[in-house]
Amino acid sequence: MNLRKYLVLTRAGIVEKLYYKASLYINLLGNVIFLIIAYYLWKAIYLSSGTTVIKGLSFEDTMIYVVLAVAMYNFMEVFLVWEIGRNIQSGKIILDIIKPIKFPLYMFFQTSGEVVSNFVAAFIPTVIIVSVITHGRIEFGLHILFFLISMVLGVLINYNINFFIGTVCLYTESIWGINIMKNVIVSLLSGVTIPLTFFPDSLYKIISLLPFQAICNIPLNILIGETEGIYAILVKIAFQFLWFLITMFFSSWFWNKSIKVITVNGG
Amino acid sequence: MKKFKFYMRIYIKILVQDIKSKMSYREDFFISVIGIIFTNLAGFISFGIIFENFPSLGGWNYYEMLFFYGFSLVAITPMQCLFDNNWNLRGYIYTGDFIKYCFRPLNLFFYYISEIFDIKGLGQLVFGVIMLQYSWIHLELGFDFITVIELLICLPTASLFMIAIMNLAAATNFFILNSGYVMVTVFKFTDYVRYPNNIYNNVIKNFFRYIVPIAFVSYFPSRVFLTPDDIPPIVYVSPILGMLFFYISYRAWMFGASRYAGTGS
Lengths: 267, 265
Description:
Number of domains of chain B: 1
Largest sheet of chain A: 2 strands, antiparallel
Shape of chain B: globular
Helix content of chain B: 55-70%
Structural class of chain B: mainly alpha
Structural class of chain A: mainly alpha
Number of helices of chain A: 11
Number of domains of chain A: 1
Number of strands of chain A: 2
Strand content of chain A: under 5%
Number of helices of chain B: 11
Distance between the termini of chain A: 29 Å
Number of strands of chain B: 0
Oligomer: heterodimer
Strand content of chain B: under 5%
Shape of chain A: globular
Largest sheet of chain B: none
Strand order of the largest sheet of chain A: 1-2
């Protein structure tokens, strides 16, 4: 595989992202405001509860988790379902399919530019700020390397799920409904809405087997040191890798099957 | 008055057209309804999980919190159903299609907004009404002629605030090209409508009262029913404030539209 032709797409994505600077700033400002609101919301929740530790999480633990989970999901989410769905409706997709590049790979590298620039511009500063505010609760050691591997796997799993759902749009012509269902399920079951530890135990057991928590929850727990020890970390990463293979298999199988029945109007 | 009748007639005509065209995409409609139900279920589940671990929030118990939540869903519905076309504004301005709205002998804002009626928003209304009723019974609030009048004043006022907030956010599309972020960001605030305003610190509290006034969408009007002996004074003037705020948002929207120059296509 000649990687260079793909990396051109990544670069184009970064350049495009930097072009709309106003959007970038507004997005950043919005994120900061949400973090402040989340802070006071959880503070109030903990104050009302009367105890300082709930299900093993102190207020500070919860805050670190919530802030990083939101930041992480934000940098991964690139509205791929929208993109594919709209391209199907307008017929533009046919131009992408006939390119001498596999369409799933083409879309991946096209959106990767946005992921990379979001990661650098939003996620890294957030991690540094959290680390400074909490006086080094996030340690910078060997596990950062594992975190990066785990995070890349998370991005890939998220991409596969998105691509699978995007392919569904070939059949339904409904983008909004499909997209919102996916968003709701992923953000609830990946731990972005509320930390997964707060779920009832029986529910938590089921959720921890699903691929959604491999998107955010696993890399995050490695980063904040919740998953300790090389062995435990490697087990989690193996789990992610397994889900990566499964989701990739299903999304490419579904795509190859669907492409044969595609009907596109115009283009 | 004659003008009002004229506009009503036009509105109904456009509405019928829109529903007809929606019905030709029946699949899309059903999937969207399921999507709305999913969203509300997820909101309710996360609400339930938080309350399983924490029995009260800022002095409000579970049923009172449910009341705020239900009230907010009902109050948001008119914005969701009637003003949904604001979401397409970014695309229309970017591609230049917005020009088609400028050539009608009608009020531009009226014509633009009336084009879309979002039926799926009604799913949210059902959720809201059920929650409101459920908490109403458990709180033993009582129901008589006065409460009906209060509801008839408080709900539309709350809706006006919500509509005005989104109108203002949508108007930014005229000034910042290809930026949906303002609308998306402001819309995300509506997730916090369901939490009582008194739990925040002063800065956020006032931010939600006077900058992005979501406190008026659920917290303040709900106080009329939850704490009838301790209603914040500002609640009594909120109907006027709501109308004023809506008018301002309308003027801002129209001002933005008047600056619209087209793309030349």
